[in-house]
Write a structure and sequence with these properties.
The chain has two domains: 1-33; 35-105, no CATH class. The protein is 28% helix and 37% strand. The protein is built from two helices and seven strands. The strands form two sheets. It has a four-stranded antiparallel beta sheet with strand order 6-3-4-7, with no helix packed on it. It has a three-stranded antiparallel beta sheet with strand order 1-2-5, with no helix packed on it. The longest helix has 26 residues, at 3-28. The termini are far apart.
Length: 106
């Protein structure tokens, strides 16, 4: 191999190795880090508490715009099982310090 071709090949290998290292670091992060906070379709809610362990009260809305109260702790909670119709949205209604679980219609 000539010197120029050898340098190009080594440079390409170095770039490939660096890009593979960056990709493996991206995939090594937990999936929860890449998810947004708040409502996740279908019927999931991610409460980002910053490590405080807080609980928050949500308003959960079904397909016919009916509202339900649901308290969640840190992490991802499936709010669909207790609502008979398809959940289309959920948001924090300002309540904190509740016992996690379903609280009924709003």
């Amino acid at each position: 191999m000539s010197g120029t071709i050898r340098r190009v090949a080594l440079t390409a290998l170095a770039v490939l190795a660096l890009s593979m290292g960056a990709a493996s670091e991206t995939w090594a992060r937990p999936a929860a880090v890449r998810l947004p906070c708040g409502y996740l379709d279908p019927g999931m809610y991610r409460h980002c508490d910053g490590g405080s362990g807080s609980t928050v009260m949500l308003d959960v809305q079904d397909i016919f715009r009916n509202l339900y109260h649901y308290c969640v702790g840190p992490g991802i909670t499936n709010v669909q099982p207790v609502v008979r119709l398809r959940v289309i949205d959920a948001w924090w209604n300002g309540g904190v310090g509740c016992q996690p679980g379903y609280y009924g219609p709003a």
